[in-house]
Amino acid sequence: MNEKNVFGKGSKKNRIDYKGILGPNPKNRNKNEEILSHKRVTIPNPLKELHTTSENYKGKINIIPSKDFCDYEASGKGNEIENICLSNAIRVRNIENNSTQVTLDNAKCFLCGRCEEAYSSLFRMEKNLNPPAKNKKQLIDSVELEPQHPNTGSKNLSLNEKNSKVLDYEQIGNELKERINSLFGRSLAIRQVDGGSCNGCEIEITALNNPIYDIERFGVHFVSSPRHADVLLVTGPVSRNMVVALKKTYQATPNPKIVIAVGACACSGGIFGDTYATSGGVDTILPVDMYIPGCPPRPEALIYGLLSTMNKIHH
Amino acid sequence: MSDNLFGKKIFEYESIIHEKFSERIQNIYCKNFNEIHILTISPEDSNEVSYFIHDKLRCGLVTVICTDERNIENTIDWKDKSVNSKQTINFNKNWQYGFSLRLIFSSETDDIFFIVTTFLPNVDNPAYPSNVVRIPSAIYYEKEIFDMFGIIAQGNPDTRKLVLHERWPDNQFPLRRDFNIKTKNKIRLNKPYKFLKVEGEGICEIPVGPVHAGIIEPGHFRFSIYGENILNLETRLYYTHKGIEKLAETMTLDEALLLSERISGDESVANSMAYCQAIERMASIQIPKKAAQIRTICAELERIWNHLGTVAGMCTDVGFAYGSSRINILKEKIMRINEKLSGSRLLFGVNKIGGVKIDFKPETLGLILADLSQILQDFDNLVKSLHNTSSFMDRLKGTGIISSQDVQALGANGVIARCVGIDIDTRKNHPYAYYQYIDLENIQGIVDKIAYEVELKKRKGDVLSRFEVRVVEITHSVHIIKKIATDILDKSTKQELHNTPQTQNDEGLVIDNLKNHLQPYDSALGYSESHRGQTIHWVMLGKDSNKIFRYKIRTASFCNWPLIELAVQNNIIPDFPLINKSFDLSYSGNDL
Predict the structure, then answer these.
(1) Within 10 A of A274 (CB to CB), how many other CB atoms are there?
(2) Which residues contact B416 (CB under 8 A, 6 or more apart)?
(3) What is the interface pTM, i.e. ipTM, of the complex?
(4) Number of C-alpha atoms within 13 angstroms, CB side, residue A21?
(5) Are strands A220-222 and A188-194 parallel, antiparallel or unpaired?
(6) Which residue of A has its CA nearest to B238?
(7) Is position A285 within any domain?
(8) pLDDT score for B63
(9) A183 and A107 in one domain?
């Protein structure tokens, strides 16, 4: 028996299917699981996992156009709705044509659900993704309630419609990889800075490194010094005692650099607001390129945020 | 409140203290089921009473609360409250309110808290004699009170800033009532903190932080080293100070609940539970049984995923990636269970004053029990393989040793106390929620109980001991959840069979009219055992009983941080991350 027989034209029975062992060939996926003593747990694409989010997941507060609230501002009850929110995320305003505009600032919302408890016909907690944005204004949802034509209320749901649009997450994940490759060679180095968070966001950021989300396969990795970093991932409302340290970290990071604010606190101060001890958001200290809302944002939302950041630099 | 709410023991203690110190105290009474309040005449008297409780009754100092009561007049009527008390003595009607100091002690043998109160005269520079010499664990409380209230503890040797750092002006004290929360002070640079200097040939310093190499919270560590050996470590924390206690004073009761969940993101259930219990105790109300069961299940889930995270972190820090990867998978599974149950991966939004916000369906509970059994089985296998990995065990054994004397002197608790064989646990010493209905010690059977006690004796206070404590607690917690889930499921099936009428007290999830029972300026303690240790909250209501006057938070991290400085001495620098992870302390929960 010569080498030719083993590797070349040997009988099909004896040939080892290297493809099945080494590569994630979807056709042979079942075979793989038989060979491995621990089956693979890494999800095909972290963004795809969003579809399996549990039904009661507190993902985002959505405003539902409801005619019951059309004349709230006119009758002076708008304040009542606004005051239910601890971080002042809700605004009720009268605009032209006698209609009432209800806005919700996702940068401030920390998903406590108090508005849903009090006004369940206007606000609803849903499991959808709280989309990150480059600009704070894009985080504001607004709905106009028209008293004359209550049935056409849904017409004004322009922003919400965009949010609920089903995205092809697989495609987005590949795009992320391509963009990172084109910009920073093959990798994106992230330095995480805690600006006085409650540790909730850190837990979700740490989860990116676990075998289930495994962000390193996209070329994203966490580095131990700002001098090695392309991205500063900042959490927390930036406590007064951290201001100097955060500025120093920013200065130590080489250009080009990106700052991402993670969580409601980093986006706007969140529940901690703007006090003697906090600054009320990362953008009061540093220029911020991307806001990832949520309290805390789930790992999928963090990856989504990284993609959107790359987008900004690309254009 | 009637006498039958109290145990007999509490009155025995009351009499002992009354007889011994009748000259020194104005008033003594029992309140909120298990609190003995002692109002002393002067700060010196307060110290004497404290020394007696600390040394003779063997009660540990759990917290010191300062309150600015300068502008409350005749509202806290001590005379009214003395109705429950056996004795009323030396009552001084024309008492001048100023700053109040409350030293709180917790008995380890009985379910009793002692609250020694004293009022400081309303003068410009208030001061009181320090307790530090007799009660060492008071040192950080006294420093904190100086920073936040400007009250000097005469005799405390450490006068450096703690909470607000050097960049804060010297004459502003955030927790005084006349301080505006929105005050913005310019940051002063060039005023360095005076670290303890270790001098000698070949000794150098390594500064680490506040921005660390890993994904963790900020804090500064100053090592003095000789070669690789650590001679001294000084921790400099409070980088995440967010003014939580001051912020709570602007909030209503429901709003402060949301704040309490965000004291430390990974202790959300323990902290919100302690807060809710403070309010519920004030109103003398027991929450419905089902609500207590749900709270307890969530608290144990929190303990499991945090302990798993710590064990995984310890594997990472010794460079054993296999262990950390596999345990992190289990942690992620528990976080998904959390999401299924509460809608939040970190269990935000579980508790509510008077009950809970979420409900468990029997079928979800069944699925979760199956998941938990699988996770526990996987975990047991992993621990076996960790025990057989010599490179892992060698790093843990004999590293970062703390002594039980230090633990007792500095008032450490939780895992840190149990790793030197001191078996204190708030769930056992001061049972709350559903823990009072279950036999915690015997939950895994008598064999495991004896094994646990033998193991406890062997604990030496090194990293390995802390590892073992966490491993044991994960198993224990799974058993607690199983027990409670069986109780819930039994009940729901029984009801289906017999169709028994439901009493409101047993079956609802929330008590709605709780707030009607609250009195202005009332106060109470709330406590729970987080995965880090004892969590103590103290809430005092304002003139409007829906508002908070003072909210004092003390998490286990506050007591346990000083122990790290002792644990790393004579260890090598590369072991520091491992020792730090084995303690697993919260920065945010400490800094507030």
Answers:
(1) 16
(2) B402, B407, B466, B533, B560, B563, B583
(3) 0.88
(4) 6
(5) parallel
(6) A241
(7) yes
(8) 92
(9) no
Given a contact cutoff of 8 angstroms between Cβ atoms, the answer to whether A248 and A236 are in contact is no
Residue that finishes a domain, picked among A122, A147, A164: A164
**DSSP β-bridge partners for residue A278:** A239
- What radius of gyration do chain B's Cα atoms show? 24
- Give me the pLDDT at residue A170, please: 59
Best CA proximity match to B270, nearest among B530, B552, B524: B530
Q: How high is the pLDDT of residue B516?
A: 81
Which of A7-21, A212-226, B273-287 has the largest mean confidence?
Answer: B273-287
pLDDT at res. B5: 52
Which CATH number goes with the domain that contains A214?
3.40.50.12280
Give the per-residue pLDDT at A191: 93
Contacts of B235 in chain A (CB under 8 A): none
Question: Is the CB of B183 less than 8 angstroms away from the CB of A276?
Answer: yes
Task: Report the residue of chain B nearest A38, measured CA to CA.
Answer: B326
Does B376 score more than 90 pLDDT?
A: yes
Closest to B185 measured CA to CA, from B163, B165, B162, B168: B168
Beta-carbon separation of B348 and A295 below 8 A: yes
Q: Do residue A25 and residue A74 come from a single domain?
A: no
Q: Is residue A53 part of a domain?
A: no
Dump pLDDT digits (tens) for A272-303: 988 888 988 899 999 998 899 988 898 888 88
The answer to whether residue B487 scores a pLDDT higher than 50 is: yes
Per-residue pLDDT at B413 exceeds 50 = yes
- Residues A102, A126 within the same domain: yes
Cα A287–Cα A288–Cα A292 angle in degrees, nearest 5: 165
B591 neighbourhood in chain A, CB within 8 Å: 196, 239
Q: What CATH architecture does domain B244-591 belong to?
A: Orthogonal Bundle (1.10)
Average pLDDT over chain B reads 85
Strand B152-154, strand B127-129: pairing: parallel
- Give mean pLDDT, residues A93-112: 81
Q: Which of B369, B337, B358 is nearest to B272 (CA)?
A: B358
Interface probe with A: pick from B262, B379, B591, B592, most Cβ of A within 10 Å: B262
Question: A174 in a domain, yes or no?
Answer: yes
CA dihedral sign of residues B328, B333, B339, B342: negative
**How confident is the model over B215-251, as pLDDT tens digits?**
889 999 999 999 999 999 999 989 999 999 999 999 9
Residues A72, A148 within the same domain: yes
Contact B38, B88 (CB under 8 A): no
Q: How many whole angstroms separate alpha carbon B8 and alpha carbon B17?
A: 15
- Are the C-beta atoms of residues B295 and B255 closer than 8 Å to each other? no
Say whether both A289 and A178 belong to one domain.
Answer: yes
Q: A302 and A184 in one domain?
A: yes
Pairwise pLDDT comparison (B584 vs B190), residue with the higher score: B584
Long-range Cβ pairs for the range A68-77 (8 Å, 24+): A68/A121, A68/A122, A69/A100, A69/A102, A69/A119, A69/A121, A69/A122, A69/A145, A70/A99, A70/A100, A70/A145, A70/A146, A70/A147, A70/A150, A71/A100, A71/A147, A72/A100, A73/A100, A74/A98, A74/A100
Residue where a domain terminates, one of A164, A185, A215: A164
Do A292 and A267 share a structural domain?
Answer: yes
**Shortest distance, CA A66 to any CA of chain B (angstroms):** 25
Burial of B458 (0-12, 13-18, 19+ CB in 10 A): exposed
Domain B3-154 has CATH 3.30.460.80: yes
Residue A28 pLDDT exceeds 60: no
pLDDT in tens, A75-94: 667 777 888 888 888 888 77
Q: List the single range of A40-44, A172-176, B125-129, B205-209 with lowest mean pLDDT.
A: A172-176
The pLDDT of residue A192:
92
Instruction: Give, as one character, the DSSP assignment of residue B228.
Output: T
Residue B524 has pLDDT above 70, yes or no: yes
Helix, strand, or coil (residue B413): coil
